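User: Sequence in, structure out. Go.
Assistant: Echoing your sequence, followed by the structure tokens.
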Amino acid sequence: MHTHQHPGERRRHQRYRIQADAFAMVSPLSAKRLEIIDISKGGLAMRYVPGNERARICTDVDVFLNIFLRDLSFCLLRLPARPISDVHTKETETDEVIHRRSVEFGTLSENQALELNEFINKHAVV
């Protein structure tokens, strides 16, 4: 599996890029689909264009994440998560600001941990 790690970073879990068209949704705060950049057993990073929901997405409160494949053949619901960072990454040709949002998973149930591992094993870039 291809892992993604920046020089100088020390992580407890390897991060993996996802080959499938996957997205996450934060609940109960937002109905916005957030593109998954990479994922690990400990958390994930997402990309989004902030809009009216920006203030709610960027709050420092614990949330739940729902992970889906675009064709809805897989969903992993209500993963507890804690915000780690939310940074401006670039502007597109249309002057839209893109943000990178990183979260750390909270304590997962045994079933959630198994499903997350299955998701990584089946959909990580090899």
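User: And one key feature?
Assistant: Residues 18 and 124 are 4 Å apart (CA to CA).
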